């Protein structure tokens, strides 16, 4: 446990930047007068009077002391914030409704009877514990004229690393650091430009066919791989890849028959691969033309027009090392149906069905350690997406 003893207040606010000196009114974020007050759930423990408030952007626990001797203590979802016994209020908050409340903390002492040019100051003391993001030691003056609150000074900070604190929004803890998805940032991946796990929607392909899909800014996610522990692709047969499998909320394959219907409905399609490579870099590759044939035609793939601005390199159409890379025109191979150009069954070798030409170097369904690859990179995360042109 690391400890920070502050004069004034300890508070965590992810949208603040260390070193900012400009004052800003943030009484709304303090939550001292929550709009919607409800009791805490059974996972919390407390002494003194304790309340919870839920806001559109985050969940917050707010405790107000009515005791004179007991220490205030909040324990929630395995996280703990401890404050001194003379504190008046304490807060513990999380980045989103329903997420663990271990990101932002504050402890506020009772008001002291000292003033300076009309400003009544108070002193604070907090423990910086495992699970805190950044404990920033701040000055909070109370402006007696209008009782508003201004944030003025950032004095000191401390951090806690994963795995003591969780990684949010699909991030994983590696070497005590959260590795985030490409559209998320922050020490614990708590700030995302978009929802990393958008809910599925119903998509009508033709008058007789509709299915649930996950969309990402107009792109249909065909394949998603996030969690090595799941490994839902290993051991799958032709019929699995044909109909689709997995969980749209985590890892899945949409299904070859749906890829055929989507890419042959009167519109031309392009495809894109977003990937986290084993060197820790986020890369992408895009192709301007993508199609999948019928079951009778072995769900033959058509992929052309590599986007030269792509950062991952061309693993599907490059004339270099064509023995491995040119997959356009190949049929789909599964462990029980060999349609590749190799003397072995590449689906057995890579532990995943794919459009192989002699066990290609752009395989997205293979085994995590050896069969999930793009050119010379092994992949940590990957999304395979298609979109109508």
Automatic annotation (TrEMBL):
<keyword id="KW-0732">Signal</keyword>
<keyword id="KW-1015">Disulfide bond</keyword>
<feature type="signal peptide">
    <location>
        <begin position="1"/>
        <end position="23"/>
    </location>
</feature>
<dbReference type="InterPro" id="IPR036056">
    <property type="entry name" value="Fibrinogen-like_C"/>
</dbReference>
<dbReference type="GO" id="GO:0005576">
    <property type="term" value="C:extracellular region"/>
</dbReference>
<keyword id="KW-0964">Secreted</keyword>
<keyword id="KW-0175">Coiled coil</keyword>
<keyword id="KW-0325">Glycoprotein</keyword>
<dbReference type="Pfam" id="PF00147">
    <property type="entry name" value="Fibrinogen_C"/>
</dbReference>
<feature type="domain" description="Fibrinogen C-terminal">
    <location>
        <begin position="180"/>
        <end position="389"/>
    </location>
</feature>
<dbReference type="InterPro" id="IPR002181">
    <property type="entry name" value="Fibrinogen_a/b/g_C_dom"/>
</dbReference>
<dbReference type="InterPro" id="IPR014716">
    <property type="entry name" value="Fibrinogen_a/b/g_C_1"/>
</dbReference>
<protein>
    <recommendedName>
        <fullName>Fibrinogen C-terminal domain-containing protein</fullName>
    </recommendedName>
</protein>
<dbReference type="InterPro" id="IPR037579">
    <property type="entry name" value="FIB_ANG-like"/>
</dbReference>
């Amino acid at each position: 446990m690391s400890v920070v003893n502050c004069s004034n207040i300890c508070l965590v606010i992810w949208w603040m930047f260390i070193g900012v000196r400009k004052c800003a009114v943030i009484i709304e974020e303090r939550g001292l007068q929550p709009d919607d007050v409800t009791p805490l759930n059974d996972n919390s423990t407390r002494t003194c009077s304790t309340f919870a408030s839920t806001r559109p952007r985050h969940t917050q626990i707010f405790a107000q002391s009515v005791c004179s001797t007991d220490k205030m203590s909040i324990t929630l979802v395995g996280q703990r914030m401890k404050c001194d016994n003379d504190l008046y209020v304490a807060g513990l908050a999380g980045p989103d409704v329903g997420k663990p409340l271990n990101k932002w903390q504050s402890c506020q002492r009772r008001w002291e009877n000292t003033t300076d040019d009309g400003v009544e100051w108070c002193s604070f003391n907090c423990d910086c514990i495992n699970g805190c993001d950044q404990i920033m030691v701040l000055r909070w003056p109370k402006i007696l004229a209008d009782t508003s609150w201004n944030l003025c000074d950032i004095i000191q900070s401390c951090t806690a690393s994963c795995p003591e604190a969780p990684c949010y929004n699909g991030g994983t803890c590696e070497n005590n650091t959260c590795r985030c998805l490409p559209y998320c940032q922050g020490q614990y991946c708590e700030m995302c430009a978009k929802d990393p796990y958008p809910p599925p929607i119903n998509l009508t392909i033709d008058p007789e066919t509709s299915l649930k899909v996950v969309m990402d800014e107009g792109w249909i996610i065909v394949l998603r791989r996030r969690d090595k522990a799941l490994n839902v692709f290993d051991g799958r047969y032709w019929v699995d890849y044909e109909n689709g499998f997995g969980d749209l909320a985590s890892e899945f394959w949409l299904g070859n028959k749906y890829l055929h219907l989507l890419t042959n409905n009167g519109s031309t399609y392009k495809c894109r691969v977003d990937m986290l490579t084993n060197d820790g870099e986020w890369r992408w590759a895009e192709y301007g033309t993508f199609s999948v044939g019928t079951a009778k035609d072995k769900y033959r793939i058509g992929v052309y027009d590599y986007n030269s601005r792509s950062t991952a390199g061309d693993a599907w159409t490059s004339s270099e090392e064509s023995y491995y890379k040119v997959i356009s025109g190949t049929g789909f191979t599964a462990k029980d149906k060999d349609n590749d150009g190799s003397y072995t069954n590449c689906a057995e070798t890579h532990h995943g069905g794919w459009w192989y030409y002699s066990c290609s170097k752009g395989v997205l369904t293979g085994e995590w350690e050896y069969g999930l690859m793009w050119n010379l990179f092994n992949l940590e995360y990957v999304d395979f997406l298609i979109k109508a042109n």
